[in-house]
Amino acid sequence: MLRIANKIPHRARRALSSTAHSPPASRFCDINDLNWQLHSVPSLITPFDDSMTMPILEAAENFVNAHGHLDPLFDVHESKFDPSKIGDKSSPTASPITLHPETKPLLDKYVAAGFTQMQDPEGMNLPYTLSCAVNAVTSSAFTSGVLGHWTLTQCAANLLAKHGSAELVSKYHVKLIDGSWTGTMALSETQAGSSLLEITTKATPSGTPGEYKIKGNKMWTSGADHGLYDNVIHMLLAKTENGISLFLVPKNLVNDDGSLGARNDYQINGVNHKMGCRGLANCYWSLGDESDGATGYLIGEEGKGLNCMFFMMNEMRIHVGIGAAVCGKRGLQESLTYAVDRVQGRRKQPNSPSKPIPIIEHNDVKRMLLQQKAYSEGGMMLCLFAASLSESTAKSDRLLLEVLTPLVKSWPSEWCLEANKWAIQVLGGYGFTRDFPLEQIYRDNRLNMIHEGTAGIQSLDLLGRKTMLADGAAFKLFLSRVGEACERHSSDPATGTLSAQLAFATEKLADTTLHLVTKMAKGEVDEALASSHEYLNAVGHVAVGWMWLEQAGAAASNPAFQESSFLQGKVLAAKFFYEHDLSKVPEVCSRLRNSVSVVNSTTASHLLH
Predict the structure, then answer these.
(1) Confidence at residue 8, expressed as pLDDT on a 0 to 100 scale
(2) Whole-angstrom distance, CA of residue 19 vs CA of residue 15
(3) How far is CA 36 from the centre of its chain?
(4) Where is pLDDT greater, at 126 or 576?
(5) Is 11 helix (H, G, I), strand (E, B) or coil?
(6) In the prediction, which pLDDT does 144 show?
(7) Burial of 408: CB neighbours in 10 Å, binned 0-12, 13-18, 19+
(8) Domain residue spans in the chain?
(9) Which long-range contacts (CB under 8 A, 24 or more apart) does 519-525 make?
(10) What is the mean pLDDT of the chain?
């Protein structure tokens, strides 16, 4: 029977299964968990009014269910369009940029639903943290990055509102948030990569106040063009006489009355063919090939462009972390659905029934599912916490956010990719086939370790700069906040042991940080930074351990804990993360303190010969 069942669509196989377990409510997202995270950990996030939160999360879920047109699994067997594979089935092409023909209808429906105006006072007027949770839901079915058009646009609009002149805001902001135009961030160049100090694109004043002529090239710009909407508004870095500056560069110039004018002088030269996230064209392009330069408008002051651009970059880093956590959770939902349906193997216990059982009953499968839960839900909590800090005006919260930002971007990107690995493993041979969506989700998620600064860049920022920010006050604040959580949960029977474990790991991390910072102060910078990636993961494990301690404490103290599998699952996932991941932090810290890195003594010749 199983051999026959495996040859037919997975949805139909459910009828052949006699399991008593129920699959997840949605294979795309888990709005109940997001709602719980937003409401149940007041020490991390100011709780939202439930009358606001659940309806908007449900609206996002309804959008996914209505426009997901089922999901990749079913669409393999049914000739229906599959939005989550827009780019995967039809990668973007250049000259001109061409996307899957259904991209525009999907994006239009997103606009019509009001999601581009989530933070607009004239629209939904949602708090930023809640809008991030909504983005997590809507992107859960579209991991190919197609909704990245609007994520980038939202962040570009926020940057313009923060740093742009009143004239630029009045002319461009409304069109960005009402879904008329899209936005991008244009930072890197072919020769510069992540080293933005090396960019060569130049901007010179045109003679009109605030207007510049820009010549040069840009690389790795997502959404640089698409042919979907009338205008694309670039937030672009270029060098002036006073240093790196930030400019607004429109695809089409805008007249004083708001109508579109002439095409600006830049050309899309090609697209980068990525392994994943193919629903969003990633382009390389040049400015000023046909004239004295493309027209751009200064945002902020000359020479302070990086300071302005960090506003958008750091917001995008939160979204990258959320996107990675979403991929991790999506993989969990898919593998849970499969594990409930798939009947295979028998119990290895005396006197047990001889009939096959659902694989979710096997301990090794439960281990792989717990691993995914620990990483994806812990990573999402960290991202939502960072989003809430970005809304705060308190100096201490802003300082803490400085430390957490490299973790938010990098930790979910690395460990939720690991979660996707286990999701594929749960499905066995089916996991790496295109009959199931997990191989695509893995490819889509792999890009997040590189998006908005590689993991290596983030680790150098954390150890080389953030540990010493404000004379070390920022990192001390992080350690003290973790310590306060340990103290707060130490007397609860359900979390007392966890508190002690986290306190021990935090103490070792503090000692290691002091050791590495002292090394750098003595001039041994290369030796210290050779361990930056391991250090980032250690700090990230402590930060996510903190998130899980808070979740476990909130779950265990809930009056419904004894009757709720959901709440009990939170505590079990926390214990699993502590047992399998946080427990490694003291050992890593000991090694970083007591050994000389082999990396620093390795030369290129050692690797080439």
Answers:
(1) 30
(2) 10
(3) 20
(4) 576
(5) helix
(6) 86
(7) buried
(8) 148-153+160-305, 455-598
(9) 520/464, 520/468, 525/464
(10) 89
User: Is the CB of residue 219 less than 8 Å from the CB of residue 190?
Assistant: yes
pLDDT: which is higher, 197 or 78: 197
Q: What number is the average pLDDT over the span 328-347?
A: 92
Orientation of helix 395-426 relative to helix 532-556, angle to 10°? 90
Of the ranges 5-19, 187-201, 307-321, 472-486, which one carries the lowest mean pLDDT score?
5-19
Half-sphere exposure of 559 (CA within 13 A, CB side): 0
Tokens representing residue 575 in the block:
């214990």
- Would you state the pLDDT for residue 6? 35
Q: What is the mean pLDDT of residues 118-126?
A: 87
Residue 212, helix vs strand vs coil: strand
pTM above 0.90, yes or no: yes
Where b means 16+ CB within 10 Å and e means fewer, 14-52 reads: eeebebeeebeebbbbbbebbbbbbbbbeebbeebeeee
In this structure, what are the phi and psi dihedrals at residue 567, rounded to the nearest 5 degrees? Answer: -65, -40
Give counts: helices (H), strands (E), the chain.
24, 10
Cis preceding linkage at 96, omega within 30 = yes
Q: Give me the mean pLDDT over the 506-525 stretch.
A: 96
Q: CA 247 → CA 216, 250, 492, 547, distances in Å?
A: 13, 10, 54, 38
Beta bridge partner(s), residue 207: none
Task: Name the pLDDT band for 68 (thresholds 50, 70, 90).
Answer: low
What DSSP element (H or E) covers 186? strand 182-186
- CA 486/CA 500 separation, integer angstroms: 7
Which of the four CATH numbers 2.40.290.10, 3.40.50.300, 1.10.10.10, 2.40.110.20 does domain 148-153+160-305 have?
2.40.110.20
Q: At residue 271, what is the residue type?
A: V
User: What are residue 245's DSSP bridge partners?
Assistant: 238
> Using alpha carbons only, what angle is made at residue 284 by residues 213 and 446, rounded to the nearest 5 degrees?
135
Helices in 427-524 by DSSP H: which ranges? 438-446, 455-464, 473-489, 496-521
